[in-house]
Amino acid sequence: MTRTSAGVEPMATGSRRGSPEKPSATRGARVLVVEDEADVADMIRYNLGKEGYDVRLASSGTDALRQVKEAKPDVILLDIMVPHLNGWEICRRLKQDRETVAIPVIMVTGRVEEGDKVLGFEMGADDYVTKPFSPRELLARVRAVSRRGRLNDSDATQVLRAGELEIDRQRFEVKRKGRLVELSRKEFDLLDTLIRTPGRVFGREELLDLVWGQDGFVEPRTVDVHVARLRAKFTAARTPMPAIETVRGVGYRFRDSARGDS
Length: 262
Description:
The protein is α/β, with parallel strands linked by helices. Helices cover 38% and strands 19% of the residues.
């Protein structure tokens, strides 16, 4: 298949195999594309628009942050090398803001080094797509992160409590002894996953599937990085870290001493 000069594979114009019905949930869903290469941005807008998405474009970091505040997109496709603010910094700011932390971010970039990908996930990105890519693959990634967001929202109707810890999925807030602890979306999801099943040991690969899904580039050590960041966030908030224990050679578990989990 030939590729455009922008590093994007054109989508085939023939009928799709099996002609799958478009998910109704995508109709009207807002996608913000942060991309300074006009041909790439137009290609993404055209193909997502055909699937029913409401696509907006931003060509710089400052414009992206402004549009996020104004339009409240459902998904953000974020290039790293954009003017004014790079994608890493944009992602970091979005994931540290309580109003935008829950918005899925997919980095779409030509930076293919492992270190770039790991840094993207450390900044809170939900997925990482490298150029060149096919619009069909990108569409699948958008659907995947949107689906995970809807699944997470479906059980967000109550506050989860474990001793002095409170996790509010509607507000994406974590409190310990009433003190707010600021977490990124992935840190929040990781903590929530562990605490929902006290005493159970989760392997690193299992946590990758549950928290990151099977659509992004992540390695088992990504879990270790996020656990370390979790611990640092609680330390910075001057509140005790939940009892997340390392099970050597396996993974992690949450031990709720109030319930006698061992």
